[in-house]
Amino acid sequence: MTPAQAGHLAMLFFSLLVAGSFALGGLAANEITPTALNAVRFWVAVIVIGVAVLFTSGIARDATRAPWRYIVLAGLFTTYFVLMFEGLKTAPPVSAAAVFTLTPVISAAFGWLLLGQLLTRRIAVALAIGAAGALWVIFRADLQAVLRFEVGRGEFIYFWGCVAHAVYTPMVRKLNRGEPALVFAFGTLLAGAMMLTAFGWGDLRATDWTTLPAIVWITIFYTAIFATAATFILLLFATLRLPSSKVMAYTYLTPSWVMVWGIALGGTAPPLLVLAGLGLTVVALLLLLKE
């Protein structure tokens, strides 16, 4: 398997695992504050990744140089997750996942600004098709809502989190100095956990942890292990092997995976017109992945 093929496989799993956080997050978002939930999940992820680092490469002295890099990346990463759960308080999971599919367009722009990565005409067309499909889902397939640009509050909040995520992707490649994926992930997650704890200390103390419903704990551990630790490594692994636009192309699969997750968790499929928007995002993915 070539490095590029390995990167594509990593992003396929990334999209599946990320979709689960939308489906579960939509069920738990109104039961706990976003900062409290994310602070706990980041510490759980730190423990998981820390154990993995301990039993593999360990932390070399070079990895501790320029710690500001981890702080910068953690700031972007934590901003994304906090705004995601804040947005899921009111935005339907499929709609929020559609907002996430706008990330490749933004990521491509930052990839050009930060890394000089240029877009071909085909990639530009694919991003436009994907953005159109995403907007169709965001506006619930309502043409009048599109014309009036009626964006829900949750979708609007989450959009700014996606901007942070789009900046994060090319910044990983720019700031990584050859550290192994696990070590780089550990440094960023540790910085993020400390930032969230400091920022959300009031929410952490105010939360009655003994009375939280089971879905909150399921969401915390799923997002910590699968949607934080695992996807963090997968994203870092793929970012070092693929251009930013191709890495983020896999976000176009997320709304479709969210729909599958929702049905599996007892929900219903979106209306047929909304499914047309999901179809456009899949077309965009195929165009982006073509060599």
How would you characterize this protein structure?
The protein is mainly alpha-helical and 291 residues long. Helices cover 76% and strands 0% of the residues. The chain contains 14 helices and no strands. The protein has helices at 3-28, 34-54, 68-87, 93-100, 103-115, 121-138, 143-148, 153-175, 181-199, 201-206, 214-239, 244-249, 254-264, 272-289. The chain starts with a helix and ends with a helix.
The whole-number mean of residue pLDDT values reads 82
- Proportion of residues in β-strands: under 5%
What is the terminal separation in angstroms? 16 Å
Quaternary organisation: single chain
Poorly predicted regions: none
Please write the string of helix (H) and strand (E) elements: HHHHHHHHHHHHHH
Number of helices: 14
- Protein structure class: mainly alpha
Strand tally? 0
Shape designation: globular
Largest sheet: none
Topology:
Elements: H1 3-28, H2 34-54, H3 68-87, H4 93-100, H5 103-115, H6 121-138, H7 143-148, H8 153-175, H9 181-199, H10 201-206, H11 214-239, H12 244-249, H13 254-264, H14 272-289
Helix pairs in contact: 1-4, 1-11, 1-13, 2-9, 2-11, 3-8, 3-9, 4-6, 4-8, 4-13, 5-8, 6-14, 9-11
